[in-house]
Amino acid sequence: MANVRVEGIKKSFKKETVLSDISFEVKDKEFFVIFGPAGAGKTTLLNIIAGIYVPDEGHVYLNNKCIDHVEPEDRNVAMVFEDYALYPHLTVFDNIASPLRSPRYKQPEEVVKREVTRVAEILKIDWLLDRNPSELSNGQRQRVGLGRALIRSPEVFLMDEPITHLDAKLRHQMRAELKDMQRNLDTTTIYVTHDYLEALSLADRIAVINKGKIEQIGTPEEIYYKPANEFVASAFGEPEINIFNAEVVKENTELKLSIFGRKKIKIPKNIQKLVAEKEISIVRVGIRPKDIKYGFIQKNENCIIGKVYSFEPLGAKAILTVQVHNQLVQLLVPSDSEIQLNQEIFIEIDMEKTIFFDSVGNNLLASYSNVERKGVAWQN
């Protein structure tokens, strides 16, 4: 049983502020992911929780007890690093067993053997126990590093981008195994990554951090469908979300969006009400590439004419970039689509899946949400 809480954490190195007023709580047995770009402060925050760094301000609590002055070795947390940090002269068995042979956690050899075997079977490396690290692949070495952390049954696992160096296929496999492993171990996990796929697939909740500040905390569904601002929206998805300015215009009694300089598109009634109440004249419109349709004839009045700018096949899918009134719009299309450069093309934006941001702070105004899986629902 372990919950972790950080309150008002601030940290600077020399005159550079790395973390600014970071606060959140990780619940017992939760898989909590800290996501952000390189240099956002993720690893520094993890090191503060581990006790490696001391915050300039703020406090860290474990099971509601302040552990600010508790030494790292006394915090009963296990940390898995980005590099494997294995003992090169020891076998896989001895690497995994090393915590249980240390003076602090020393166990009888029969217990060591039983626990190493148990952990190795969970990680599917039980057939490698007699090998040295030099005889292992990168994926196998990372599993050994995980095993060394798992064997001690700590209250909290801290994982700093543990699978970032693995190849794409192995990363996909390890994501599934990490989630399954965490469920079986019933342990609180705080996981740092810059890979949005890892964050979405592994997390019970995600804290999005940028330039030392928390942008949003929420479930994967909330982060993806209801991003707090444009930064969060752009960070999740490949290719990233299309965002462009739109002018709110009144046509008869109905409010419409004027986009790409002239095209007027109907907007949902709930959004019309929100825009009217706040007297907004300019909004930022976000639409994910998968939610844009395309064709070579104009099917309805919402179709927008453009020209094919680029076509990038990526296996079964391809990224189609369309130039519309000096703006580039990206779509996801089948890679076997017969599309030629500079070809005239029509795109249609699904307004029921559009995310609206304000034009001043780029913060969320309203978004389509399927978090409750009850069909179309506009949240604001």
Walk me through this protein's architecture:
With 380 residues, the chain is α+β, with helices and mostly antiparallel strands. It folds into 2 domains: 227 residues, 3-Layer(aba) Sandwich (Rossmann fold); 138 residues, OB fold (Dihydrolipoamide Acetyltransferase, E2P). It contains 9 helices and 22 strands. The strands form 4 sheets. It has a 7-stranded antiparallel sheet with strand order 13-12-11-14-20-21-22. β11 and β12 form a beta hairpin. The protein starts with a strand and ends with a strand. The C terminus is likely disordered.
Structural features:
Rossmann fold, 380 residues, alpha+beta, 6-stranded mixed beta sheet, 22 strands, 2 domains, disordered C terminus, elongated, 7-stranded antiparallel beta sheet, OB fold (Dihydrolipoamide Acetyltransferase, E2P)
Structural class per helix/strand content?
alpha+beta
Strand content: 35-45%
Parts with pLDDT < 50 across at least 5 consecutive residues: 370-380
Principal-axes geometry comes out as: elongated
| CATH fold assignment of the largest domain | Rossmann fold
Brief summary:
This protein is an alpha+beta fold and 380 residues long. It is built from 9 helices and 22 strands. The strands form 4 sheets. The protein has a 7-stranded antiparallel sheet. Strands 6-7-8-3-9-10 form a 6-stranded mixed sheet, with helices on both faces.
